[in-house]
Input
Amino acid sequence: MTLFLEILPDLDELIKLSLTLILERIENALVRQGLPYFSIALAGGNTPKPLYEALAKENLPWDKIQVFWGDERYVPNEHPDSNQRMARLSWLDLVEIPSANIHPIPTNSNSPSEDAQKYEQELKAFFQVNLPSFDLILLGMGDDGHTASLFPYTSALNENDKLVTVGNKGSDPRITLTYPIINESKCVMFLVTGKNKQTALSHIFADEAEEQQYPSRGIKPKGELWWLLDESAGRYLKK
Output
């Protein structure tokens, strides 16, 4: 793992840098390496929305971009809380990306565990391996240190055999990628903003802390790990 920590003055600068990094990695994969596609798993929440809006303005080879999600709330696709809906409205519906290149997490069987299994099967079928490696996974982080839908002291943190599982926020089921597939990624990029994240970040970057309490500590990809923080979040992590 190669760790990068960048603390930016504000959200605008964070989005600019994250956009630059993503475009560089797309070019590296498709042009320099000549790969047939670039695979990205998206984060939900408010922070990445302006990034998606910026990506929608780029002239990219959309037919070679394959879009997945890192987690999803167990709600219908059209629900205001849907991560898929947010990404579609701010980005995917605004560009000429083939519908076959968009791989949303299913949430329509009334069984989160069944839909988690379906998504795992889709991942394995698409990548044609048992442990896929995304080119890029975007992640956020909650003020409790959770990421994707890997919440503190939940069973999803101990899932080593599945690529996709049910993550629970109280009684609210969600579907999430697990540590094994996230950590197989070529690049993981955290986008974190806000003063309320300072305490969790101090534990995540501490020499020792409880991983079950701060799940973001468990993100240790085989490739690059980028932490992009705004000033209010990263004030006490100055390099």
The longest strand covers residues 2-8. The two ends are 19 Å apart (CA to CA). The CA atoms of residues 2 and 224 lie 5 Å apart.
